[in-house]
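Following up on my earlier thread - several people asked me to post the actual chain instead of describing it. Fair enough. Here it is, all 323 residues.
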Amino acid sequence: MLLTALAASVALGSARLSLSEVWDALTHADADPTTRAIVTQIRLPRSLLAAIVGVGLGAAGAAYQAVFRNPLADPFVIGSASGGAAGAVAVIVSGWAGVSEAIGATATGAFAGSVFAVLLVYLIAGAGRGPAESLLLAGATVSTLLGAVVWLLLAFARDRLPSVMWWVMGGLNLSRDTWAAVAVAGPLVAGGVAVLCSLGRPLDALRAGDDTARALGLPVRWVVLVVLVAASVAVAATVAVGGVIGFVGLVAPHLARPLVGASAGRLVPTAGLVGAVLLVLADLAARSLHPSQELPLGAITALAGGPVFLVVLRTNSQRRAAV
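Reply from S.P.:
Thanks for posting it. Predicted structure:
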């Protein structure tokens, strides 16, 4: 499904290309220069970036849901996405970097903001000594406060409002050099997701409850901290290059769970792949639905993800009622 979505994303758009034209542009140096530029400099890096962002959000969402034992947990609830957005917007508003000028500076701001938010939530909730619900409540509070910080920054920097709004609405057109964005986000997302995938058995133990996990000899505080940091690294990278993109981290684990079950060792990577498929298709829709302008990617994911999530909730409720 991901390969098919990537192929469609590269071939379709304002200028439709056949798969043979795409293949020639990728493999032949003497291919049509315009087609080669469209494929190699615009669509291919953007499609890869969409997949990277989707993997990070989907895998992080699955990890958060396992840690908090809550199917509604996602990168926004814990404050990771809001912290990344606040850090990126602070960098832009301060004038240290422009959205289209220095993806590295905004990436650094997003990374710092996301990690700061998660560590703050962790400390407020008692450094992992309290129940998972306390982390969830602290995350929701910090996320709300950081969202208010973003809007205050916008109020004091109205001259930069148009550029900053793309961060708030989400999109993959935040950098002129998309390959540079891929280079920034790729290693961070890969590293964070790799750590989460390696923690499949500890995550399964946490799903059974803190007391059960401790009885199995699991250092709950340290595992929770490592999961939060690893997931936040991945989310920070996605916010740095794509802004605030909602619902993917919430919906992807629910779509992946019927495919592979609830075991975190299988669910985390599968949710990442499902998230990649969702975001590649959403980005294709964002740049194809309107003939003259690109639509906000965050709005597309919310419009598509909201109904899907409601259907999943209704289906699960009916299954529980039948049991």
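The chain has one domain: 55-317. That should answer part of your original question.
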